[in-house]
From TrEMBL, chain C:
Species assigned in the record: uncultured Thermomicrobiales bacterium
InterPro entries recorded: Cyt_c_oxase-like_su1_dom, Cyt_c_oxase-like_su1_sf, Cyt_C_Oxase_1, Cyt_c_Oxase_su1_BS, Cyt_c_oxidase_su1_bac
Function as written in the Swiss-Prot or TrEMBL entry: Cytochrome c oxidase is the component of the respiratory chain that catalyzes the reduction of oxygen to water. Subunits 1-3 form the functional core of the enzyme complex. CO I is the catalytic subunit of the enzyme. Electrons originating in cytochrome c are transferred via the copper A center of subunit 2 and heme A of subunit 1 to the bimetallic center formed by heme A3 and copper B.
Catalytic activity: 4 Fe(II)-[cytochrome c] + O2 + 8 H(+)(in) = 4 Fe(III)-[cytochrome c] + 2 H2O + 4 H(+)(out)
Family per record: Belongs to the heme-copper respiratory oxidase family.
Protein name: Cytochrome c oxidase subunit 1
Amino acid sequence: MATTVVELQTAHGSGGDIGHADGHAEHPPSSTGMDSRKLIMWAFLASDTMFFGSLIGTYIIYRGRAEALGVGPFPFDIFDIPYTSVSAFVLLMSSLTMVLALGAIQRGNQRGLRVWLLATALLGAIFVGGQYFEFTLFASEGLTLTSNMFGASFYVLTGFHGAHVTIGVIWLLTLVWMSLRGGISQENSMVVEVAGLYWHFVDIVWIVIFTLVYLIPYEEVATGEGAPAVEHSMNLLARLGAALPF
Amino acid sequence: MAIDNIGAPSRELEHEHEHPGSDLYIRVAIVLTIVTAIEVVVYYVEAFRGFLVPALIVLSVGKFFAVVGYFMHLKFDDKRFAWMFAAGLVISLSVFIAATAMMWSDEYYLGDVPTTIEQ
Amino acid sequence: MASVVYPAPHAQPHGDTSRGTATVARPKSQTGLRSWLTTIDHKRIGIMYGVSAFLFFMLGGFEALLIRVQLARPENTFVDAQRYNELFTMHGTTMVFLALMPMASAFFNYVVPLQIGARDVAFPRLNAFSLWTFVAGAIILNLPVLASLPSTLAYILGQLFGWVPQFTLPFGNFVPDQGWYGYAPLTTPLFSGKEIDFWAFGIQVLGIASLAASFNFIVTIFNMRAPGMTMMRMPIFTWSTLITSILIAMAFPAVTIALVLLSFDRLAGTSFFSPYNLVDGQLIATGGDPLLWQHLFWIFGHPEVYILILPAFGIVSEVIPVFARKPLFGYAVMVYAIAAIAFLGFGVWVHHMFVTGLGPTPDAVFSASTMLIAIPTGVKILNWTATMWGGSLRFSTPMLFAVGLVSQFVIGGLSGVMHAVVPVDSQQNDTYFVVAHFHYVLFGGTVFAIFAGLYYWWPKIFGKVLSERLGKLHFWLTFAGFNLTFFPMHFLGLAGMPRRYWSYGAESGLWFWNIIVSAGALLIAASVWVFLYNVLESHKRDRKAPADPWDGATLEWAIPSPPPVYNFREIPIVTHRDQLWVEKYGPGDHAHGQEDELDVTIAGAKVGGMTVPDEQAGEQAAQRAETLHAEDDAHGIHLPNPSWYPLISSVGLLVLVLGILIDNPHLQVLFLGIPLISLVGAVVMILGFYGWAFEPASDPVHSDAGMGSAH
């Protein structure tokens, strides 16, 4: 993954490395008219859905197992929905600043590019920091990687996402550095656009995680004190599960 | 034919696309914020319990497509990018819904748990 | 001179003074070791993939031979049960990940850019990174084998002379022994040791290599085609490369995550794949599930089977038309068949898990989907046969191997359909019948196709002719040895001989077919030596190959053998499928019925028609060709420069992983909780990435650069 990212940094030519070497702004057309760097990023993102699919599937399968064995803590003891909502909001806003950065460089505004890129990186860093804080908080409440299957699958899933955000932050800062060295021109805004695609993907993954992991209840019994009574909807899901022929 | 469209040279080059302006992005971001707020409210308000799960899924799918469509430009961009991403999404969704359904169990039965192990 | 510039027709020198910012000096030599280490030429990368894959093919074959020696007679004690487990594990892992997949990569790398009329892949440095990361993964996977050599040697001495070492041997014996699919809970810390870490991280690193390569080839095939080469004019091998790459991109993530979870189980104390965890000698129930590993592994593993066979189908679909002197029958249907196989390949993984008791619904669904795959596969067999029908056949060695595939793969396919039937599969599961099935598919399919491809493209790659006489001997030896080895396994399986057992009883009556199988294995080994002798002799005799020895139909035969570094002096313009035949013979005979016409009719009904939007495409192709040629004229042919960074990044990755794996307390110095060696590796890798990111793909041409002089 990181290598794909690295290759995309190479700011030359729409036909990948080849075909256009001197970094001029002209675009020798590719066979499809699609930019090679954008294409490889979309290919990577399509593949990345499988990564997160595996992890989210694992989480959904295992989250209830802690309940079945009666080994806590359980999701409703732990989750702090208002806190995570703020995190989700921060990541959503970083998507906005990312498109604004792209808009800036497409108009040739180098300063705007740097400001919005830095804002995006900052919001991303706040998200990762918030996640670190959340993890330490959960750990202090007794949820560790090894305490039960809920903990294991939760930490690996959200940690994998956090790693994506961290790589994204480093990438954004690298773009700022490139821009300072004069490496990003208006014609070359594809470098920013591709980074943006990656960044927004990380955002949509969090939209899915926020809903599937934090908001939707899975268990028959909610045991936590601060958790809302959500029996009804759980029954709904249980009925859904029971209706499946497996 | 769809498969040949993938390969047919496109008349549109990247920069001929009109990228939407900043105010559209800001509007989309406001909508996303509101939807997120609605999600949290739905989660807490007792009266919504009956349709909490479908409501949350619909709302998050809406957010998903808003980000993909506007921020990732798929709505304005070459349709073949959208096809590519959609194909990946459909494969992973179907594979993991099937796998999760097969692994899903209401009760998890462990059998007789041995408490010690002979080393 | 900083940049490699080749003269284009009517090239003008071009001046540009901006400089690259590389911090490691750009390598300049074009011969010698350094040029190979830094190369980003797809042809050299392809050759390196091929050579290493062949070495691992020999190693995996050697392991198979040892297995066959052990099973040659009942109650044999040539190896013990533990070493037997290690042998079949390493045989399977080596053949799948280190021999067949990289051999396919070798052909992708060498042939695809030539077939689509490109000068390289879309991201040449990423390509080099894939190669070196593959090498790193292969090293990690085989380090336990290497480290176990002292104990193996002591074992052999003990077997031969009864010598027992009186001192502790270095490293001990820790070769992976859990089978190539690493079923939990055999891989959990309860039942295994360090070897599984090497196995898991090795495959993880190989996965990174495969993923990077797959993205690269998807983009290359979409975007780097010569003007006028629409998707439906692409050679069928290029199609199979594209589909295989998509399969890799979508299948490897599942195993990557499975291995991540396994590594957490092993290194961080979770229990994703084990219902119990051992804490202070007590078993704690955790709720982990070994079945999850099976799901994740086979979600990857079944597409992996198609990753191994689709390139083989592609090679054969190239060879058969050329040696039948007839265009491929039903080209469009062939393309759809590949796509259908790939798509359905994601919906059949549970047929590897029929005996785990998932219930009637999953069994029925996946049984049906598995049978469905037989349809597109059958279509391919039909099309190959119909291509040969009425053609003027030449049975040169590539054709022999290709026809060998068609005939042998059918047998493997049929036993595959048998396994789709759940009750039958429940009987055959874990017997030698399954071993027979997948060797008919992977040897009778993939290995035959690899040899077909080697004989077919050898003159192009090395510019030298292989001996037909030796080639034919090689084929018939392989064919006889293969059938002698694997056909009796059907009987053994039906007689109830289980897989992965290190021995069998003398009274079981299994000895007869087993000794035949072992004899067949020796014959296969002999046939590989015939091939090697053929290669050696061809290089000694040095008979130069012409550019187009087989009267080929695709673009790679339009350029000299071996191809120049820049492949095509002028980027070709493609007007037809089987372009070269049309150029050589006109659009009459050979091209007849290929374009815009119906390809297949069944009972008078049109099944596979394609209309290509020709006018628009033609106009655009002309425009694009004009741009590309103008570019060449103005600047000379620009090739990206060699670079150290892909190698540096891969070495960093290797060191990073080794740091995690080494558990020698003297080496395992922790720094901020991270092994110091890993930290060094990570730093090297990141520096490599940054150097790479800030290094221009190719240096600008300097005005003082002598035109056309390549140093």
